[in-house]
Here is the input.
Amino acid sequence: MRDEDNQFNGWCAACDDFLMAHGGEWDDVTEDHAQIGLLCEHCFERLISMNHPDRG
Here is the structure.
């Protein structure tokens, strides 16, 4: 879940399917589809715990 810069990254399965169907690289098309937004690390961890109670 962390990238090469040790930053969290996350997106849903539908966006991952779209990403993979379009070459697996983020570009204008895939980013527009996903409508990626920013969350601080605290909020991201909270979101993970809400969706995966076993990881909270």
